[in-house]
Every structure is written in structure tokens, then in C-alpha cells.
Design goal:
It is elongated, with a radius of gyration of 39 Å. The protein contains 20 helices and 25 strands. The protein is α+β, with helices and mostly antiparallel strands and 723 residues long. Helix content is 39%, strand content 21%. The protein has a five-stranded antiparallel beta sheet, with no helix packed on it. Strands 8-15-14-11-10 form a five-stranded mixed beta sheet. A hairpin with a 2-residue loop joins strand 6 and strand 7. The relative contact order is 0.07. The chain has four domains: 177 residues, no CATH class; 98 residues, no CATH class; 327 residues, no CATH class; 63 residues, Nucleic acid-binding proteins (OB fold (Dihydrolipoamide Acetyltransferase, E2P)). The protein starts with a helix and ends with a strand.
Length: 723
């Protein structure tokens, strides 16, 4: 009490009074009298709630209807307020000039001292006595003049520690002192909150500092993950950037950070902030983050794979046929890491062609249902992005154990086929084998060898001849040619702001690509025939023939233009797991994907089934089980395919963005979308975009265009025809 009296005396000696009359409330009034509201009159000074976050001072001007009042507020604005918006009527004020509100507020602010509230709480707690704002003013200021009463109201209404509202009626409230234990707990929470706020401000300052640093000096990503509290906030921003926040608290935390940084609460703002501080590279793959795909193998899976490499026993060693005498060509893209197929060919004495399709044998290491197999099934497929490759199997197992390697004796499953003169299958077999790959060729080098027509590479020429025969035979069976341009991109140093982008555009109609694709299709037909002959449950793939006659597209130029038109009318693919179904697009009575068991899980299931039959064992999967596996694997594969397509397109657009604005590109008109807006294929980069073309241009025509705008993050390419 002595402390309160001392503070009160010091403040009274320098307190500034409002030059208005005071109407005091007797301390002997009943509780209900204390809550009696004063009837509002013009000139009264009041406080009202403008909205959820703002409370303003105003002067009553005149009634507005039956209950509302027009007021002049502290900002000089006139508005109509409802009675329930009024939070306090300053007592003792009869005719207040609204131009003096700002001065009154300033003097009230100067007069506030939260310490007085604690002293009053101690005294009132001892007496277990409630208090009104006016009574508190008498206690802490020595009077209940308008200024002091309003100061007491502010202290009580904003207090979250010492007092609580006991009863409220309209704009009048009575407050009671909280119990000591409750105050101690609230003080503890306040300290925690203040400490959190301090940490938050320190974090915001870290962001601002990192944002201002040059690119080479920004803190590494690991530094943002070293401390839990910082990592949690960074995680909230990352979740906000990809619209993947888990809880409302995480979303709220990210919003608070963006607000503190003076940024809009949008995913784009969060993304740009993470890039600006160096946490994300400029070209971060958002789609990869959003999909949350498995990109790295756990230590447990890697260890299991290492055990397979060191201890795996080849169950098929005795039954493998030795084909190491054959010349074996492995043809793939130049940066391929997982080599899972290769080819051999020879001409028989009767003139017929025999080809061997050698496929890597991952089932020699991995057993169905094993730890490594289950992980591969969850992934469904390897992921090939312009910036990285994420293999279905742990890297060393896939590339050193399973892959075919030049000059080394490798385990394989070989599908051999003898062709009739018309290209149909005369004989076939499926065997476990040993091979020794002779050449590892790129498509470019294989095409070059074919053009050179070297006598010592007669086997390659025979393969090319077999491919032509097969293509002709399939067309006779109704096959549809969908060859188009295939674009690949490899990005060097993708973490750099301006990484090197290597672009490769390949025509699928080129000899080497035709050769490989025809042999893979041949393998798929032979495996389907083998499965049908022996009643083996397999993932048989089919595709119904389109109802539209393909000859209707004969007027279009062969290649991308015709292929694009045909693809538009193709019917959806289908699968059967008991017997082959016709694949109308390929022109085959049955087809099984078999040649990529290291990178596609459904190919691996076909290997499991075939190898079980060759050993005379029960099939690991029934048709029903295969259908269940295919359902989840195919869904995962579609997600990966979408990711790969979007990533490829991003980097092609980024490449276009960097080119000179006046650079011209050749574009093929694939079709018209609306009026003169056409779907165009940029031949040099193999990407599609839309653009306006002039009158007289037709589908299949070439036009010269310029890239007006290219925004990879928004997937936007704006083209303009150069006339």
C-alpha cells in the first residue's frame, strides 16, 4: 500500500487534468448501480470498436435512427455506430470538441504506467474487492477525472495478467483481481511469449540480412537447419511455398513471417523469399517438392543392397546358356546410367534373320517380397530429370550389379526370335544367359555406323534390316506410326543461378532410334506369346484400335504433325493379367513390357514370373495380385511422368528465356485451336506452344516465329510470327 501511495503522489504532482467537470461514483453503490449505463448524449467522449482489430475514440454527434449514433472519430472521419460497438463512455465529459481527441489521447498515453496496476492488484487481492475503472483511477491517480478514468479503463481493458472481467453490461464493466497462482502462471506465459517474440524478431533479422547478401555469400542451406526453432520456421515457409502446410499453426507461422518481412501472404512470396536467402536455388523444382517422391534410399535399403551384391547366389547359373560369342550392341542415350538391354543379330543359312534381345537380370539379385523389392515397388520407376537421376534401386546395385557392362560377362534374360521374310515371328525362345556386351553406343554413333555401312559391323546392318521388316509387318497389322521429336535436357550445376543447359532434340524416325524401338516391341510380342503359350500371369498391355480411320490423316506430313493428330484420337491403353490383349497402336496380338526391369517395376514383375516358370517354380504372383500391384505402380508412374514432363518443359523454357529476343525459330503448325491461334511445335527445341499465325497458313506448314516472352515458373511461352 505504501508503494502505491508513493507512486500515486509522484504522479499527482505532475498529472495534467482535463478541463472538464467530473461526476464521481459513490463507492457505496450497489453492484448493479455500478453497471448502470449513462444515456448517450451529443458531446460525450466515447470509445468504440471499429472492427476486430481496432478501437477508436470519438465524440457523439447526433442520433442516427432509433438506436445508432453518428460520431466524429480520432481520424476525423464521421461514421454511424451501433450501441453494442461502444466499449466505454468517458465519465464527466459533457461537450467535448472532437478536434481535441488527438491531444487527449496523447496525454492519456503519457499518463499510463502499467506498474500501477500491479500495486492496485496486490491491495485489491488482499481485500478480495472488485473495482470499476473510475474506482481504480481514485486508487492509482488520486482522482477520477475524465483523463484518469480513461487511463484506468485502458489499463484494465488491455490487461491480461492481473484483472479479469467479473460482470459487464453494455459499455460498463466491473473487474476483479485474479488469484495469485493464476497471475504467476500468466506471468510465466508472458515471459515465454516475450522470449518467443524476441527469437522471432531475431529470425526475421536473419532473413533480412541473408536477403541483402550477394549470392556467393549467402548462408548455406545447412545453416538454416542447425537449430530446431529456425528449421521449424523455414519448414513453415517451405510448406507455404508449395501449398503443403500440415497444420493451421504452420500456415499462420509462415504468414506472420511474410508479414514481418513486408511481403504478401502468397505461395510465390514464400518461394521468392526462400530463394532470396539462399535456402532454395533459383531453379528449385517445386513440383518435386510438392509430390514428395522418394528420391534417396535410406541407409537400411542401401545396406540391404550391399548385402545382395556381396552374398547373392545365382539360382539360374546352371541353366544359363552361353552367348558370349555373339557381338552385342547396347544402344542408348549418351548419359545413360542404367543399361538394361542390348541386341545381337545374325543371318541364318536359309536367309532368315535371327535377333537376340538381351535384357539385364535384376531378379538374379532381388527376390519378390524382399526388403529391396518392396522399396522398388513403392517407387514404381526410376526418375529421370534434367537435373538428376533417382534410380528405382540403390545406385551401386543398379549400376554395378544389375546393369550390362561393356567387355564384362553379364547375367541376362535373352529373348531370341527368328523372323520370317515378311517380318512376323517364326520361332522364339526365352532363356537365362551369359553375354559379353561388345559396344556401348549412343543413338548418334549407332546411326553414324549404319550410314558408314562397314563390313565388319554387318550384325548392326542385319539389325537395321530386321527393324525395317518388323515396321512393315506391324503396319500391315494396323500399327500406327507415332514417331515425333524427342527432347532431352541435361543441366550442369543446377544449383547455380545460371546453370549450363544442354539440349538434345532427336527424331524418333532416325535409323538407330527406329532400330532400338522395333527390337523392344519385338521382345514385348515374343514375351506375350511365350506367356500365352504357357499360361503365365503377366502384365499384358493392349490398346484398342481407334474408331477413326488413320488413313484420314494421310494428307498430313509424316512425322510430328501427323503423329500429333493421330495421338489426339487414340483410345486409352488397357491391361490384362491372364492372357494377351490386342495392342492396336503397335499392331500386335499381345505385348508385355520386359526390357527395362532396372527402371520399371512392372517389367520386373514380368521377369519374376518368367524366371519362376523357367525354374519350374510356382509363380510369385497370381493374376489378381499382379492387377493390385499394377494399380499402385501405374499410378505412381503417372505422377513421375508428369513430373518429368513439367521439369523438361521448365528447362526448355528457361533456355528460350536466355536467348536473344530477335532470334528466329522454325515452328510446325500442328493444329488450329481457335480462329488463327495455332498449336505450334518449335522444331529446334521440341516444345509446343500456341501463337497467332497469318491468313493462308495451313496445318503442316512451317512458320518463322520469335519468342516474345518466356516464363518457366509460370509455364508461359508467348510466340509471335515473323512475317
Amino acid at each position: 500500500m505504501e508503494e502505491l501511495e508513493a507512486v500515486r503522489k509522484r504522479r499527482s504532482s505532475r498529472s495534467v487534468r482535463a478541463n472538464v467537470k467530473v461526476k464521481l461514483t459513490s463507492t457505496g453503490e450497489l453492484l448493479e448501480d455500478k453497471l448502470a449505463n449513462q444515456e448517450l448524449q451529443a458531446g460525450f467522449l466515447l470509445e468504440f470498436k471499429k472492427d476486430a482489430d481496432r478501437v477508436l475514440l470519438a465524440v457523439a454527434h447526433r442520433p442516427d435512427g432509433k438506436k445508432n449514433w453518428m460520431v466524429f472519430d480520432q481520424n476525423g472521419a464521421t461514421s454511424s455506430i451501433k450501441p453494442q460497438q461502444i466499449t466505454y463512455i468517458v465519465p464527466g465529459v459533457e461537450k467535448f470538441n472532437h478536434t481535441e481527441i488527438t491531444d487527449f489521447m496523447q496525454r492519456a498515453q503519457d499518463n499510463l504506467d502499467p506498474a500501477l496496476l500491479e500495486f492496485a492488484w496486490i491491495e485489491l487481492l488482499e481485500k478480495n474487492k472488485p473495482v470499476t475503472p473510475e474506482e481504480l483511477a481514485e486508487m492509482i491517480f488520486g482522482c477520477s477525472d475524465p483523463l484518469e478514468s480513461y487511463c484506468s479503463h485502458i489499463l484494465l481493458s488491455k490487461d491480461e495478467i492481473y484483472f479479469t472481467v467479473l460482470e459487464s453490461k453494455g459499455c460498463r464493466s466491473i473487474y476483479g483481481p485474479r488469484p495469485n497462482e493464476q497471475v504467476e502462471e500468466l506471468l510465466r506465459r508472458k515471459l515465454v511469449k516475450e522470449a518467443e517474440e524476441k527469437k522471432f524478431q531475431e529470425f526475421v533479422q536473419l532473413l533480412k540480412s541473408a536477403k541483402e547478401m550477394p549470392s556467393h555469400a549467402k548462408p548455406p542451406k545447412s545453416s538454416w537447419l542447425a537449430e530446431d526453432s529456425i528449421q521449424d520456421r523455414i519448414d513453415s515457409l517451405e510448406a507455404y511455398a508449395i501449398d503443403a502446410w500440415v497444420t493451421s499453426d504452420q500456415k499462420k507461422a509462415a504468414g506472420a513471417i511474410l508479414k514481418a518481412m513486408g511481403l504478401q501472404k502468397t505461395a510465390a512470396s514464400a518461394l521468392n523469399l526462400l530463394i532470396d536467402i539462399g535456402y532454395f536455388p533459383v531453379h528449385v523444382n517445386l513440383e518435386l517438392l510438392k509430390l514428395n517422391l522418394r528420391t534417396h534410399h535410406s541407409e537400411e535399403i542401401v545396406e540391404a543392397a550391399e548385402i545382395l551384391l556381396s552374398e547373392s547366389h545365382d539360382l539360374d547359373e546352371v541353366s544359363r546358356i552361353d552367348l558370349t560369342h555373339l557381338k552385342v550392341y547396347a544402344i542408348d542415350v549418351d548419359e545413360a546410367d542404367e543399361l538394361d538391354d542390348a541386341l545381337s543379330a545374325s543371318r541364318l543359312q536359309d536367309g532368315r534373320i535371327k535377333v537376340w534381345i538381351h535384357v539385364a537380370d535384376p531378379a538374379r539379385f532381388v527376390k519378390p517380397g524382399s526388403k529391396v523389392d518392396r522399396e522398388a515397388r513403392k517407387r514404381g520407376t526410376s526418375i529421370f530429370l534434367p537435373t538428376a537421376t533417382y534410380p528405382m534401386f540403390p545406385e551401386r546395385l543398379a549400376m554395378e550389379g544389375m546393369s550390362l557392362r561393356q567387355g564384362e560377362i553379364c547375367n541376362a534374360v535373352t529373348v531370341s526370335v527368328v523372323l520370317r521374310s515378311d517380318g512376323s515371328i517364326a520361332e522364339y525362345s526365352v532363356d537365362n544367359s551369359f553375354i559379353k556386351p561388345t559396344y556401348m553406343l549412343t543413338y548418334e554413333s549407332a546411326t553414324e555406323l549404319l550410314h558408314l555401312n562397314l563390313e565388319e559391323e554387318a550384325e548392326l546392318k542385319i539389325l537395321s534390316e530386321a527393324a525395317v521388316l518388323r515396321s512393315q509387318w506391324r503396319r500391315g497389322q494396323g500399327a500406327v506410326d507415332t514417331a515425333t521429336l524427342e527432347t532431352r535436357v541435361k543441366v550442369v550445376n543446377p544449383e547455380d543461378p545460371e546453370p549450363l543447359i544442354n539440349l538434345y532434340v532427336e527424331n524418333q524416325a532416325e535409323p538407330a532410334m527406329r532400330l532400338v524401338s522395333e527390337m523392344m516391341v519385338l521382345c514385348g510380342e515374343a514375351v506375350a506369346t511365350f506367356g500365352s503359350q504357357h499360361n503365365i500371369p503377366l502384365p499384358y498391355r493392349g490398346q484398342p484400335q481407334s474408331n477413326i480411320d488413320v488413313s484420314a490423316f494421310g494428307h498430313l506430313p509424316e512425322g510430328p504433325v501427323r503423329s500429333s493428330a493421330i495421338v489426339k484420337v487414340m483410345r486409352a491403353a488397357e491391361m490384362n493379367f491372364r492372357s494377351p490383349v490386342r495392342h492396336g497402336v503397335l499392331g500386335l496380338p499381345g505385348y508385355v513390357q520386359f526390357t527395362s526391369p532396372i527402371r520399371r517395376y512392372m517389367d520386373l514383375t514380368a521377369h519374376y514370373q518368367i524366371k519362376a516358370f523357367l525354374r519350374g517354380e510356382d509363380f510369385p504372383f497370381s493374376a489378381g495380385e499382379l492387377e493390385g500391384i499394377a494399380s499402385t505402380v501405374n499410378m505412381q508412374s503417372r505422377v513421375v511422368r508428369r513430373l518429368c514432363n513439367s521439369s523438361l518443359r521448365y528447362w526448355v523454357i528457361e533456355l528460350l528465356r536466355r536467348q536473344r529476343k530477335d532470334k528466329r525459330y522454325t515452328a510446325l503448325i500442328l493444329r488450329f485451336i481457335k480462329d488463327r491461334i495455332a498449336a505450334l511445335l518449335l522444331v529446334e527445341v521440341g516444345v509446343q506452344a500456341s501463337g497467332w499465325v497469318s491468313e493462308g497458313k495451313q496445318v503442316g506448314d512451317e512458320v518463322q516465329v520469335r519468342v516474345e516472352e518466356a516464363h518457366p515458373r509460370e509455364d508461359v511461352i508467348l510466340l509471335k510470327e515473323v512475317v
